[in-house]
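Hey,

Quick one before I head out. I ran the complex with phenylalanine overnight. Inputs first:
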Amino acid sequence: LEKDALDSFESAADADAVEETRVRFLGAKKGALKDVQKMMGGIDPSDRKAAGMRLNAFKTKLQESFEASQSRLGGGEASGIDPTFDATLPGIRPNVGHIHPITQTINHLMEIMGRMGFEAAEGPEVEDPWHNFVALNIPEDHPARDPLDNFYLATASATQAGSEGSQLLRSQTSTVQIRVMEQHQPPIRVISLGRVYRPDAPDATHYPMFHQMEGLYVDKHVTMANLKTVLRVFATNYLGGDVQIRFRPSFFPFTEPSVEVDFLWNDTWIEFGGAGMVDPAVFEAVGYDPEKVSGFAFGLGVERLCMRRHGITDIRDLYSGDLRFLRQF
Ligand code: PHE
């Protein structure tokens, strides 16, 4: 039996043959070894000890022979190695996520403005009409408060959309100017980066949610020249090269004078947002004395900045969730 078993293990040509041999000799139910074990009962008690020792030695031998044949064939459970494993194949890379391009842009903008001494401030995305409109010198009958141009919320406290009580998703980050000035005295030098909402139909350059970078600088003797310098230094840092900047006359209820801000980039003037000198009515709304302080404010489109810098042509790509697009940044 021993020779038969050892020969079988030795000559087994593949894993199946090894397994078959294992079952035939070492099998827990019908293995030949089991039969031998059963015969132990019939052995004279005086010989039983010696017989048991021989049986154990035999068993060990078979086990060793089995393991040897397994490793000879380079497989089997005992070796712990999957026979189909090929160490020379390229590995499977784990999927590592990364930061969304808009968040990357926000971080970059905060860093650039931080170097010029602007601290980051935050405000809520659900706003009341006071911070989104009234304190910003936008009275109740102003077209900017039209329910068709804003996302008013259907809350319990809402009376008529657009009226004093109704909350809305902020349509501009200028709300944070008010919140900061209500809580702090000048000098103030802050930026606020966050989402704003307007019911625009999505196309290549519009999306009902986008981000703005609001800037506010309030101190004694702040001038339009300071505003222009800050924006030029900012644009030069963010877009690279010596970016030229242009102001075009405009109107915002909360700045006087007001301008549209264009940057010259690759020989084209592109509008990035609005700016101006803080209107005295805004200072009065937050309890500042307009005779004693002056300041500038600006609001730039974050998507626009990000898209320019990375050559993105459709804002919807940023929010499609398409990993083929997002993985490029
Ligand atoms: N809040 C304005 C907008 O959303 C931009 C702006 C900010 C203009 C600050 C002037 C000063 O278009």
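The pocket of phenylalanine is lined by residues 172, 174, 252, 255, 273-276, 297-299 (CB under 6 Å).

Talk tomorrow,
K.
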